[in-house]
Amino acid sequence: MEATARKLEEQATKWSPDADASDVVKSIHAMLHPRNIVVVGATDKPGNYAERIWNNLVKYQYAGGMYPINARRDMIWGVKCHKDFNDLPDKPDHVLVLVPARFAVQVIRDAAAAGARSATIVTSGFDELEDAESQRLAGELEDAVRETGIAVTGPNCLGNLSSGERLFTNIDERPVQMIAGSVAVVGQSGAVIMQLRQAFEDRGIDVCYMVTTGNEVGLETPDFMSYFAADPSISVIVTYLEGVRNTKSFRDACKAARAAGKPIIALKLGASEGGRAAAMAHTGALAGSIETFDAISTREGVIRVRGLDELIETTECFVHVRPPKGDRLAAVTLSGGKRGLMIDAYSTAGLTFKPLSKNLAEKLSTMLGPGSIIGNPLDAGFAAVVDPTVYMQSVKLMIEDPDTDMVIIDAEFPKAPHELRERNIRLINELAGKASKPVVYVSAMSVGVNDFTKALRKSVPNVAYMLGTDRAVSSIKQLIEYTRLPKNVPDVKSSSSAGAKATLEKALKTARGAALDEVASKTLMKAYGIPVSMEGVATTPAEAVKIAKQIGFPVVAKVVSEQILHKSDVGGVVLNLKNAAEVKKAFTDIVSRMKKIKGKPKVDGILIAQMVKAELELVVGGSLDAEMGPVVLFGTGGVDIELMKDVALAGAPLDADDAKALINRTKAGVKLKGYRGKPKLHEPSVIKALVGIGNLMADANGRIASIDVNPFLINEKSGVAVDALVVLNNEAAKKSGSRH
């Protein structure tokens, strides 16, 4: 274990990016491996951040130059205090900015002019605040960072850790082990990241890098994810995200990590409206829906956890065990009750314990006898409790079983010396080191750890030790699912034709309001290969009858107006019109009802459309997420869409394989394939529609807020869009408050 730690520390210290590495990776390397550190805003006022950071640099024996700057002081903290950058004995490299916000911009410009390669701006008072002065300073700081090219974390952050350099530019006064392990942690909240570092150390997980990014005026969390993907000393990347400012850089970083075989374990703020508001208030981050984040990030191999405890357990799992070859689980316990609880917990998560082979069951039965439950999970029972060698032989047989992929040991690590339990743990650690499968200890409850447990845990690196069954189950499931992901995720680009793109540009150019009317929306759908129902627009009752006869009865009549987004809500739709008289009456009634609406919306005509016979009503659509960009939606449609909540999302654009995967994540997808004796429905038309909407959302490049095709009707032979609404992302839409 000590040899492994030394090797990782050497890698962290000696590795440098290749010459062809990106400028971002090179600049981050300079930040985390600086030649010297300059503290601007040095003061010895009790408890101030500058002094706490300086004390940490001294305490952990950072080997580079250390220079405080304060124009009003000659000496501080027992060393010479410099007036400005020109007064330094060496060219500045990494600058810590701890002056008031109104001075920070000039410090960054002066630091860059003096030759500094990077800076951490601890100072707050920028775009996390809403007043005009703070926003002005935020804009000036952004300009300074962009114009100078200096690599910056912050403002409003709490510093960094680079264990291999013994660098701790953080305010945390709790002890740091300074062991350059295989884990890197990055995120926007200094307090959360600091707490994670401490929790990891308490669990025997060594942190190589810890970076707090704050408001991210310069470098962003995905930039550091890319760096950690490149650094060979890192095997697990942990991140806390309040918002993703640059979707492309985030996805590129995820791809790089996935290609390098490094899991990204993410805790994402924004699962609720309150959480999204908190992200904006804390670091000015704009958070989108968590469903959209999951749709895009999961494809790229991100493991999203639901809380800090789950994050700790998942990291513990990925750090200490190799990925399993499959999902065949085995478990050993000494309690029939806990055996039952295990079966419930794992089954609820969709995980199962494979039945034991006849040969293994016979061996265990002969050895254990009465008082045990021979099965999987195995309750080794009285014989194993009485005779430790029997217990160890039971575990050995389960680990060596070729028909299982992962073994779970139900047991706690002791909190005080216990010869028998310690010996068992060390023996199982040896077995795990030789095994071709992961071995995981799981304590049924979160019993915590103490100094003795930490030391014991450090001495058995071949097993994971997880606290709490529920969190362990979630982590193990994440580990299994991660192994199923492709190592390289292909980029999907829009496959639309030049004609489709021309139709889109024309529609956007001629749009007069917040949304396209149904006719214009369907014209766009048709251009993108999305099948639509037969229809025509009438401006008189007689014209409506003529169109209806051409289509064939029954038909539907619907109002056409850019100003009416939800036609059914205002009586703008009449269904199942069986003859000419009914068509005439529907035309007249709709026009009459529209005249009574407040504001008198402009009516461009009445759409007469084919009444499509369908076996299933679906919804297909698209949306522009505030954070993650364009996505495609699929699920159960019609009037039950809100009740059923059977929808799934995927990033746009997508190809046919992605579309099939999206369909398979819903109950509607089960029905498409034929459910309980019903016929198989026409899935190719749905795939075509999803690919088309993905292309349309991608081609619009942020100019379309949402696309709603509900219902998309499907039968055995075809599927068609019988209604469509395209809401634009323009000033008219913003003024009208259109939602998507």
List the helices and strands and how they pair.
Layout: H1 2-14, H2 23-32, E1 36-40, H3 49-59, E2 65-69, E3 75-76, E4 79-80, E5 94-97, H4 101-113, E6 118-121, H5 132-148, E7 151-153, E8 160-162, E9 167-168, E10 183-187, H6 190-202, E11 207-212, H7 221-230, E12 236-241, H8 247-259, E13 264-268, H9 273-283, H10 290-299, E14 302-305, H11 308-320, E15 329-333, H12 336-348, H13 358-368, E16 378-379, H14 381-386, H15 388-400, E17 406-410, H16 419-434, E18 439-443, H17 451-458, E19 464-467, H18 469-484, H19 498-510, E20 515-516, H20 518-527, E21 535-538, H21 541-551, E22 555-560, E23 573-577, H22 580-595, E24 605-610, E25 616-625, E26 629-636, H23 641-644, E27 647-651, H24 656-664, H25 667-672, H26 683-700, E28 704-714, E29 719-721, E30 725-728, H27 731-736
Parallel strand pairs: 1-2, 1-5, 5-6, 6-7, 10-11, 10-12, 12-13, 13-14, 15-16, 15-17, 17-18, 18-19
Antiparallel strand pairs: 3-4, 8-9, 8-11, 20-30, 21-24, 22-23, 22-24, 25-26, 25-28, 26-27, 28-29, 28-30
